[in-house]
Amino acid sequence: MVAKEIKIPDIDTRLAEFIGVHIGDGTLTPNLLRISGNKLYDYHYFLYLQRLVLDLFGLKASILFDRRRFNQRNTILLSIPSKKLAEFMHDVLGMPYGDKIRGKCRIPKEILRDDELTFACLRGLVDTDGSISRRDNYMCLSFDSHNPILLDQVWKIGNGIGIFTYRFKNQIGTNSWPRIVTYYKIIGSSNLSYIIRFSEKLYNNRRLYKTEVVNYFDMYKNKRLPFKIRARGLVAMTSA
């Protein structure tokens, strides 16, 4: 059987963000690219990714709910069965098949040569393997990875724009609200759950726990993505 052809996209911010998403929560085989998440919080984000895949590669990605995993009943999957896409990700972009840590997965050099591409890739990484969360009475922005090569790359990028303030074991991040605001000014987010938690703190001074986010989906579902704060949001940078 002849493999279905795909659109070959330019290396732009959309592709850079998708690469970040894949490095964060993706799995690649010679015939399939799959991204995993939590159906309670990531469904709207997966709708965005589904549109992104269609726009980039001309492929229809399927959103599936994996009920086979006994301990992961809330798993949602974005499934893209395509040999040509797998070859593009592996041969052109250097994404390894199988285990990403053993395969030394990293942000491609082509992305790191350009700031806008780098920032878009970081957005995809943090939207999948990172979080913005409430810790007691403050907010924390963090990125987690067991891949030391990737962690070094993200640490360097974050330091270059003055975002991260700590690095501990497999996590880097910041508890500084002004730095989190700077992140959402420069990098932004396409993950509605993260956008809600950030926006509610920025504009309404509400520090939401993760489980509270689901009550705000209808209010935010028409947000333009990727989301970045506008200039008027900067007035909140000095708040605690």
Which SSEs are present, and which pair or pack?
Blueprint: H1 13-25, E1 26-29, E2 32-38, H2 39-57, E3 62-65, E4 75-81, H3 83-92, H4 109-112, H5 115-129, E5 130-135, E6 138-144, H6 148-160, E7 166-168, E8 171-174, H7 177-186, H8 192-204, H9 217-220
Antiparallel strand pairs: 1-2, 2-4, 3-4, 5-6, 6-8, 7-8
Task: Supply the key terms.
4-stranded antiparallel β-sheet; about 40% helix; about 240 residues; 2 domains; Endonuclease I-creI; single chain; 8 strands; alpha+beta
Estimated helix fraction: 40-55%
- From the helix content, strand content and strand pairing, which structural class follows? alpha+beta
From N to C, what is the helix and strand string?
HEEHEEHHHEEHEEHHH
- Radius of gyration equals 18 Å
Strand order of the largest sheet: 1-2-4-3
Strand content: 15-25%
Under CATH, the topology of the largest domain can be stated as Endonuclease I-creI
Number of helices: 9
> Termini, distance in Å?
60 Å
CATH class of the largest domain: Alpha Beta
Work out the count of structural domains: 2
Outline the biggest β-sheet: 4 strands, antiparallel
> What characteristic shape results from the CA principal axes?
globular
- Return the average pLDDT rounded to an integer: 91
Number of strands: 8
Poorly predicted regions are 233-240
**What is the CATH-assigned architecture of the largest domain?**
Roll
